[in-house]
Amino acid sequence: MSLTGWLQAALVFGALLALTKPLGSYMFAVFTGRRTRLSPVLAPVEAAIYRLGGVGVDDEMSWQRYTFAMLAFSAISFFYLFVLLLVQGWLPLNPQHFPNLSPGLAWNTAISFLTNTNWQFYAGESTLSYLSQMAGLAWHNFVSAGVGIAIAIAVVRGITAKTATTLGSFWVDLTRACLYVLLPISAALAIVYVAQGIPQNFTPYRTVATISGGRQTITGGPMASQEAIKDLGTNGGGFVNANSASPNENPTPLTNVLEVLSILLIGASLTYTYGKMAGDTGQGWALFAAMSVLFVIGFGVMYHAEAAGNPLLHHLGVRGGNMVGKESRFGIAGSALFDEASTATSCGAVNAMLDSFMPLGGLVAMVNLQLGEVVFGGVGSGLYGMLEFVVLTVFIAGLMVGRTPELLGKKIERREVQLALLAFLVTPLMVLVPTAIAVLIPAGTATLGNSGPHGFSEILYAFTSANANNGSAFAGLGDNRFFNISTGIVMFFGRFFMAIPLLALAGSLAEKKKVVAGRGTFSTSSTTFVVLLIGTILIVGALTFLPVDALGPIADHYLLHSGRTF
Amino acid sequence: MSKHFWTALRMTAISVVIFGFCYPIAIWGIGRAAFSWQSSGSYVRVGDRIVGSAIVGQLWRGARYFHGRPSAAGKEGYDPTATGGSNLGPDSKILLAREVRSIARLQRSNPTVGTPPVDLVTDSGSGIDPDISPADARYQAPRVAAARKLALDRVLALISKETHGRTLGILGEPRINVLALNLALDRLR
Questions:
Q1: Among partner residues B42, B131, B182, which is closest to A328 by beta-carbon distance?
Q2: Is B121 in contact with A318 (Cβ distance < 8 A)?
């Protein structure tokens, strides 16, 4: 590890800290219907969208109606992308004449973008037309992120409402999230990205003769616009197979830190929005603090493991850190920073190949996903995932002192705890059961890229990532029909069976009266609470996944250091 | 319920127009106007012939040129239509065997300079890494100088000239674009 490596991380973190309040306040204004600086330009567009879409601005929805609207939109957007991929060969903007996708791959890709996972069984540069990329994948990047933000805002409304039966309008929240939050930031980033060298064109690939006598086909496409929303929306599905490791998506150290920052930005800022909506910004900063602690620990362990390097290579006389699957321009610090940010959130973009990380570096990525991606998290899903842990924490704290737990003056009772646990239980169910099935059947181990415990890690990581809607991979694992279908199902449950219980929780909390905080009330903005919250996240995650991790990355680590190869 | 689906259908159509078409086309227009070289692919020309892209690494042959890192992209490596890493884990027998072969090959072609730096025996993430580290370049300098009958000092000076430091002093790692370095080498007389 080097000082410059830590300074680079500190710079990104400092920028994140500085932007959390302004962007958090801006989102507060956007979602409470106040005028913002962008309103003069965007308000007419917003009004036109409602008029064309037949949406009533004041159409307040109960949690059930909000959920139905969200599901209806998700269903339509799934079928749209599924069909687009199935017929892309017959459509324009396909200069490479790529054929239609197979139904299995189209299904997997459509579910994966619907659920904000962006698992990459597809290889963009050799499979997808420019039309599929921009009007399919990049469009999904906007709206699936918008849906995430909308759900988070609805959940926060439920928790912070005085007494209400409604959570707001799904269509209005979705429109505002995409139009006021995602679009302007993406556009600004995309322009910087073009200036830094990310292509943005519609021309066919060009084959050139190189100086030393070879030929090379150079790819193209509308990459910069897609790159910006890919990170900002914590989607993570690359334009090209190598994702942000490719210089086409991430050409310079500057684009690298901007991508890291944009991955973390909305998740971090939403904590401030939460605090403002609760009328007490300390509530938001408490969540920010818990997230930051987990982030710094994760980065430190990952950076340390990668910088220490591979002992097998050291024996051959080659010194230095583990550079397999990493790019020269980012080095180890820039790679660890990116992949930590991307797995802590639900982004899943990578600028270095996780499959080739040291076992402990890969373990950090896996644990990030297993903790439920609450460390800044996905746009929206990070906040509502964290709020699920907040409910569990106040419940556990309440049990310790024998009082009815409260959150922001609302009593947390049986129903709320049941719903929070229901949302939580999806994770072990959707990770451990499919992993067990995969190792038992031939199709589950047929496409492994590595053997031994590392091969097991590939399977475990695939389902962990699908369930967490992350989309990063130990990418040595190839696709086949079993993985296309099973990860598709896991992604679906991972998204909706977390979101729906939390919307129900919000609906239930919204209806409760606020009780006045007394002397015995446990403050959810205190340092004690932050420590308890971190403890709850780690203990719940560890209890669930430590045994299975021991079979994968942990066994891998000890065997590697005893000189075993597979 | 059916009303929700009807609204969903209309909202899908509207949002596809805005985010799927207007947004990327607007960025394309701005890119063409303000950064046309970058947006079209950062093509590098020698005379009027295009020889590659400044951001995409390529396969180099022969002792006269600096070489990039091992690549797992495509059959021969450095194929931008098949980007990716080897995805082999640190305890993979295949990876270890490859690294042993890389080291042997590098030591054969660069006999005067000991064990190679780590970047030169490890495959990159993209398979089209356009850069090498200053240590990688210095390692290859005696070979290139000998093949071109140049003084080693001149080659080393060129390496220093082509080295980009960390951005703002802390971002990324010092690096050398292999294509730029080799083109500069060809211009040396």
A1: B131
A2: yes
